[in-house]
Amino acid sequence: MKIDEILETKREGGRLEPEAIRAFVDGVVSGEVTRAQAAAFLAFAFVRGLDADETVALTLAMRDSGDVLSWPGLDGPFVDKHSTGGVGDKVSLVLAPLWAELGAKVPMISGRGLGHTGGTLDKMESIPGFRVDLDADALRRALAEAGCFINGQTGRLAPADRILYALRNETATVPSIPLITASILSKKLAEGIDELVLDVKWGTGAFMKTVEDARALADSIVRVGTGAGVRTRARITDMNQPLGHAVGNAIEVEESVRCLRGEGPEDLAALVCELIDDPRARPLLDSGAAYERWCRMVRAQGGDPEAPLLGSGCEERVVEAPVAGTVTRCDAWHIARATFLLGAGRLRAEDPVHPGVGAWVHAKVGDRVEAGQPLVTLRHADRGLDEAVALVRAAYAIQ
Ligand code: URA
To answer: Whose CA is nearest to atom 7 of ligand 1?
Structure first.
């Protein structure tokens, strides 16, 4: 099928065969398909939809547009998790070493923060020396040595997604379940994994604002992941308030290390174990044994797990409860926006983030507070403090 026939078929709501979808994706990467044609395809797919088979075909073609990692000589199972993004979402930092300690191999390719959600790579880079740009050989060594790694996407992993995602941003075609499914899965399947667990978040701090939307995305990813030959499960989890207490970069590493040492917080520990779904996970996490595995991973990627984290030396400002009562709202989006204004996040991919700024959320939904008791401690540097304080105040309802 020629590209004009592919476009006409989708424009009229027809079904595309896998070969046609693969030809389109290959053409996008080679440049044979023009940007205008690619944008038209995305718009037609957005409006007309893609069925399950078409979405599987798009996912596999995007996965195969670049390197697909494989791990000869290493024993599996090879597993990973993907989160649709949240506030204080440091699950990857705890889950990767814990799952590795349970005997799995976790080749985790992660992203940077954009907008109000934090990025795992930005958090890991607050560890002195830690590198997230290892090449395929170094990744293999890290996986053999530590059983897990947390690395960035190399330029050769699912390049079709990089092109198409940028075009979707430009053409208002991001919020399409088949396109999101193919985008997420193409990158994850290129890791050479056998099993994937999805943490699909819903709520004010999530990409999906309602449970129904989260369920539709979870269903689609599970169906397509399974169709592509990977055992795929999903959990739908609440992101109306931050996960744990820490929101930022270094501050989330601090909290993750505490969790790996068996010191909670409970919501984070429980979610990590629910995602791994192995009865041995919780006792192992509580014993602190996964901390040693974390240190191995950090060292394997060039970092020093004992060194002070980057960005120390921030000032602190405590935001106190205006009245006594029970916290009925601690809104994730407001807290995220506050830490973003302090410099913890970025709007454009090339912007730097401040490793040290962030928030420690003392009081969460259901907690009883007295007037004047700390709600949140903000770590701040040279910007955004007044607006951040106002946002933290607006995040809370106390009754
Ligand atoms: N994250 C991705 O990687 N792709 C999407 O399309 C949406 C979120």
So the answer is: 180
Our answer to whether residue 30 is catalytic in this structure is no
Annotated active-site residue 351? The verdict is no
pLDDT range class, residue 94, cuts 50, 70, 90 = very high
List the residue whose alpha carbon is closest to atom 2 of ligand 1: 184
What is the pLDDT, as a whole number, of residue 202? 97
How far is C-alpha 132 from the geometric centre of its chain's CA atoms? 15
How far does the centroid of ligand 1 lie from the alpha carbon of residue 87, in Å? 16
pTM score over 0.70 = yes
Measured CA distances, 115 to 288, 347, 349 (Å): 33, 5, 9
Q: What is the pLDDT of residues 315-336, one digit of tens each?
A: 999 999 999 999 999 999 999 9
Residue found under tokens 């290493």: 74
Q: Which of 10, 22, 63, 81 is catalytic?
A: 81
CA–CA distance, 249 with 381 (Å, rounded to integer): 14
CA of 375 to the centre of ligand 1 (A): 33
Per the annotation, the verdict on 90 as an active-site residue is no
Which atom of ligand 1 lies at the shortest distance from residue 187's CA?
A: 3
Ligand 1 pocket, CB under 6 A: 165, 174, 180, 183-184
Using CA positions, which residue lies closest to atom 8 of ligand 1? 180
What pLDDT, in 10s, does the model give residues 97-115? 999 999 999 999 998 887 7
Of the listed ranges 84-93, 117-126, 143-152, 189-198, the least confidently predicted one is: 117-126
The DSSP annotation for 116-162 comes to TB--HHHHHTTSTT--S---HHHHHHHHHHHSEEEEPPPTTSSHHHH
Cβ atoms of residues 100 and 142 within 8 Å: no
Spell out the domains of the chain, with CATH numbers in brackets: 3-63 (1.20.970.10), 79-153+165-300 (3.40.1030.10), 315-398 (3.90.1170.30)
Distance of alpha carbon 120 from alpha carbon 92, whole angstroms: 7
Nearest Cα residue to atom 6 of ligand 1: 180
> What is the C-alpha to C-alpha distance for residues 210 and 357, in angstroms, rounded to an integer?
30
Q: What Rg, from alpha-carbon coordinates, does the chain have? A: 21
